[in-house]
Amino acid sequence: MSGKLNGVKKLIEDIQPKICFVHCSNHSLDLTLQEVARKNISMCDIFTMVRDVSNAILESAKRKSIYENIVLEPCYHPSKLDSIKQNLLPFYPTRWFVRVKSLTRFLDNYSRV
Fold it and tell me: pTM of this prediction?
């Protein structure tokens, strides 16, 4: 987006030279949270474990089928009366919104994983 040669910033500057580029606040927050998490060894270990386990299950059709047939059987969450049947989500390294969903799914299914 902000490339000096071929980015959107450069294309817009060619049309309007007075343009001022400002990073998206959500993107800046994502980058900040990512850097803070890298400095915390415990967070790095947790993220690595969730990413590795999720990838091991999701990248193999055989393991994914086993997970769906055995692990995704109806299981009752203590705080909810209805059953939770959710598949794991890929763990993306840069998008914190997706990371939160991925971590939540992993924690919900932790005892079954």
Answer: 0.58
SS3 108: helix
Cα(89)–Cα(93) distance, integer angstroms: 12
Contacts of 2 (CB under 8 A, 6+ apart): 8, 9, 21, 23
Place of tokens 């927050």: 29
**Distance (Å, rounded) from C-alpha 15 to C-alpha 108?**
50
| Residue 41 or 26, more confident | 41
pLDDT band at 79 (very low <50, low <70, confident <90, very high): low
Alpha-carbon distance of 1 to 4, in angstroms, equals 9
Q: Cα–Cα distances in Å, from 41 out to 21, 44, 104?
A: 34, 5, 20
Asked whether the predicted pLDDT for residue 78 surpasses 70, the reply is no
Q: What is the pLDDT of residue 29?
A: 78
DSSP class of 67:
I
Contact 71, 112 (CB under 8 A): yes
